[in-house]
Amino acid sequence: MENGSCSSRIISTDQELAEAIKSRLHSVKVAPNYCIFRIPTKLRRENKAPYWPQYVRIGPVVCCDHVSRHKEEQKKRYLASFLRRVEHRTQVEDFIGLIKRSLTEIRGCYEKTYYRYWDDSNGKLRQDKPVSESDSLLLVEMILVDAGFILELFLRYYYSKVLIYRDDVIFAKAGTINEIRQDLMLLENQLPFFLLRNMYQLAFSGNPDYPDLPPFLNLTCHFFSHYYNQDKTIKDVLSENNPHPEYRSKLVKAKHFTDLVRTFQQPPCLKHSKNEESQRWKWIITVKQYFTGLISRKFKGNEPEKLLEEGKGNEHEKMLEEEEMQGEYLYSAVLLCEAGVNFKVNLGKCLFDIEFDESEGELRIPPLRVDNSTELFYGNLMLWEQCYYPKGNTFICDYIFLMAYLIKSVGDVDLLVRRRIIVNQLGNPEAIVALFNRLYKHVRLEENRYSALFKKLNKYYGVRRHGWIAILKLQYFSTPWTGVATLAAIILLVLTLIQTIGTVISLLL
User: What is this structure's pTM?
Assistant: First the structure.
């Protein structure tokens, strides 16, 4: 009986444990689908400036002990102006209701959420308290202020050519709108795109006071058109007659402004990724080895099919390793130039239109302007890609990876500037080298879209004849006058040789 009691207690304990485990597993939330991330602590400590807003703080993801009271009041003035625009159709209660209904989805977009509040003890505005359920109304107010500011800003920018707003410090002061545009593309400084679109539609859909207002996507693209980087105009891209509707679909499905600006950099049609190229190269090598084995073993009675099946012969394995290595490393611009690679500017706007013509030895690269905002721009896009997009889809990181390999020294910068590939607005070439080193430092890529290009360039570099021809051109035919002098010297040398031979012959006779 005692044993039975003991056994009963053991079974009861197991059941309690099982129920507890089930309860805990049931309470575990679905894996979050974050799309607005915090800057990694290490990166923030090393160089915070490219990721920190200069004018306006947007969204709840950042924890900071000071928020500009003046800028916050400016945002509230814009919100008040926005509410006056739509007061005949939509009231502030309607926007609050929309935000509250979407609050769970909104919070699910953020890695962390903090709300703003006035700290009486220090007399300043702060944003360093995590949002709890009891603080949800404070978060709603904060989002309403930020969203209202953005929508009013976009509307004023859209009408800026026909309307002048008095006492508007943002549009009155030169350069402020550019600072805000930069702030609104920072990864930490975002509101979900769907929220802004829904608020815009609530305010203006069917509003007779604004019959000619464009859709929210068009309004947003107009504001960020400064970052648009394609040969097609943004108007053509947004048109329903666009032959590449998938590109417009990417813009419509943007998670936030950082994502939208990243899409601006991509061409409508993208070339094969590195993984596809790599598989293609491996397949070609394998087939080549198969037929080589078929021919060489024909008279030996061996079965070449084994080579195709295994694909692990020493020679085959070595070739694959060399292909992989060549796809992960690239010589600098100066070294490639010395090996005969001719750098030329590609006049296309898309940065990814990089081509290498092996027959001519020409590497064509679109021009890149490097200024004080370059690190901010690419740093945030690269961080967004590495946080959210899967491998093989990191276009910006791949591009910076390539450029960082080309730019290793001041000599590389000078060469690319002379070829008009780099437009240096920083002044100091060393600053450009340091900039690409900082951007490249935190890139972690398992795949590289330009792997096939690396292989072609490294293969070209390995042919000595190309280097000899390049040295001949650079040293003896770099200018027309140098070329004439070289030809004159060659002719003089030939004539002297002929005269010498003639003299020797006459003496022998």
Answer: 0.79
